[in-house]
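Propose amino acids for all 417 sites.
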């Protein structure tokens, strides 16, 4: 099917122009001038976009919790995928702290296969660094190697795994951590460290030091302090292969919001909402390029679990609006830079060169947004089962109108569902 998205503002990490986008067979075929005649390019279908709307590459999520398998009361692959599509995400890395833990490549492949059959998003499950996330044995990573089994043979090409992560735990034992990092490096995989235990600043410094020793690509999840971000900045300056993400809630909210929401209940998250000085340091990191990506750490919980102090926020359906309002409407960055933080850079971190930009030959995973629509966040309208949003009731500016996965419509907020 040849589809022409007509006369719309096209924005990605390197372009911001009015034009048309031609899609064929699920891939972007060409960016064409405004006013292109659909007949002249053989379009079988055209998509008209509302005045002022913007077509971007779909967002790429480096860090979400889909709770599947094991916690269907919090989220499932189905509800998480619907939430992702509604938030404009076309690709998601889901974390391994499920039940059972994702330490088996067959489990990861099953999740990714189910996601592909459903057709809403592409899923790249993170596998745990140690078996059962018990912090003792990274031997399960050996099973990821291709046939032949040499120590530096990369991960089997058929496995949908790009990231390894112990999630909030990080491996306590240095020797085990180092062994896991070396195995990951041999497999060509990136390790995402959450640096939640023992204090974020110290945990970040430790992860950077061990990854340097193991020569392993490191990604620091949800950086939230000025000191931790500075450690990333210095490691990058020294030439180490390290990237980092920040979360929308740490960019927008502070400890004052946590207190207002209830620091032990609805306002609880790991790492916690920080000081205004830390928040401003994260924004500075976005401006100077230290921050590579924005990732939600989407962590859905039931109302009862959240009231009992379960940490985390549901985030997929508010990320774009929160970041657009905080970063773009304030004049700090343009939509193009936001696109690099939410699409191009996370795709690059995952080693996925087939997405994240509006370029010929890449996947037609697209999101159409109205950057000017203002609305109060209403968690009861979320597709996610998690209603634990710290932005509940807050007025944000920027709405996801529609999402396309491989050129197919997977979400349309304008139609009745
Ligand atoms: Zn997380």
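Proposal:
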């Amino acid at each position: 099917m040849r589809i022409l998205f007509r006369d719309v503002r096209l924005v990605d990490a390197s372009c911001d122009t009015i034009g048309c986008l031609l899609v064929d067979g699920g891939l972007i075929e060409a960016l064409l001038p405004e006013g292109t005649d659909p007949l002249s390019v053989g379009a079988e279908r055209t998509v008209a976009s509302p005045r002022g709307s913007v077509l971007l590459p779909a967002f790429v999520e480096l860090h979400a919790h889909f709770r599947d398998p094991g916690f269907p009361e919090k989220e499932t692959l189905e509800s998480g995928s619907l939430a992702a599509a509604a938030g404009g995400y076309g690709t998601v890395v889901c974390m391994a702290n499920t039940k059972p833990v994702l330490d088996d490549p067959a489990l990861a492949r099953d999740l990714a296969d189910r996601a592909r059959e459903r057709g809403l998003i592409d899923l790249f499950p993170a596998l745990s660094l140690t078996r059962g996330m018990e912090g003792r044995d990274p031997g399960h990573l050996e099973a990821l190697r291709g046939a032949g089994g040499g120590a530096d043979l990369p991960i089997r090409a058929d496995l949908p795994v790009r990231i390894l992560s112990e999630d909030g735990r990080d491996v306590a034992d240095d020797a085990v951590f180092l062994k896991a990092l070396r195995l990951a490096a041999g497999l060509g995989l990136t390790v995402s460290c959450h640096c939640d235990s023992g204090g974020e600043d110290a945990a970040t410094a430790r992860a950077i030091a061990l990854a340097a020793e193991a020569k392993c690509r490191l990604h620091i999840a949800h950086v939230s302090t000025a000191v931790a971000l500075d450690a990333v900045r210095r490691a990058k300056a020294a030439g180490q292969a390290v990237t980092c993400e920040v979360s929308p809630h740490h960019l927008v909210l502070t400890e004052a919001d946590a207190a207002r929401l209830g620091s032990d209940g609805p306002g609880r998250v790991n790492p916690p909402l920080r000081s205004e000085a830390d928040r401003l340091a994260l924004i500075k990191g976005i401006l100077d390029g230290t921050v590579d990506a924005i990732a939600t750490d989407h962590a859905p919980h039931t109302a009862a679990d959240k009231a009992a102090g379960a940490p985390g926020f549901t985030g997929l359906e508010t990320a774009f609006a929160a970041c657009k309002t905080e970063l773009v409407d304030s004049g700090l960055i343009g939509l193009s830079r936001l696109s690099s933080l939410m699409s191009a850079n996370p795709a690059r971190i995952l080693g996925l060169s087939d997405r994240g930009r509006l370029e010929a030959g890449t996947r037609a995973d697209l999101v159409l947004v109205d950057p000017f629509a203002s609305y109060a966040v209403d968690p009861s309208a979320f597709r996610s089962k998690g209603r634990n949003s710290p932005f509940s009731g807050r007025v944000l500016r920027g709405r996801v109108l529609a999402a396309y996965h491989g050129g197919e419509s997977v979400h349309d907020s304008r139609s009745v569902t």
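The CA atoms of residues 328 and 335 lie 6 Å apart. The pocket of zinc ion is lined by residues 63, 65, 95, 167, 194, 297, 299 (CB under 6 Å).
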